[in-house]
Amino acid sequence: MQLIGFAYPIIRLKPPAVNLTIEDAPTIYINEPRLESDRGYRFQYLSEFMGFGPHDLAAIHAAAPALTPLVPTVVNAVYDQLNRYDATWRRNPAKPALR
Fold first, then answer.
1. Are 77 and 83 in contact (CB under 8 A)?
2. I need a labelling partner for 15 at 20 to 30 A (CA). Which of 58, 69, 81, 99 fits?
3. Interacting residues of 98 by C-beta distance below 8 A, sequence separation 6+
4. Prediction pTM value
5. Cα–Cα distance for residue pair 16/57, rounded to 1 Å
């Protein structure tokens, strides 16, 4: 079992090797029902999936004073994009009122 910088374990079949190809990459098992019910687990999954790590988080914290006024605009843009696709909008029905 390997921890990826968070409190939730990711279970791997074999340790990572050097110069992995898609065919050689270890299978990562995700508890899909837990993705729906546990925000921390979902964040950890998405972070690993996107390659988002501690340096990215530190950069966001450092830029927070400049980014804070933009949050409503960014959130609205994300929801506008989600709304363009019926499958994603069905899974995110509670759009916050930030406008």
1. no
2. 58
3. 72, 75, 76
4. 0.47
5. 24
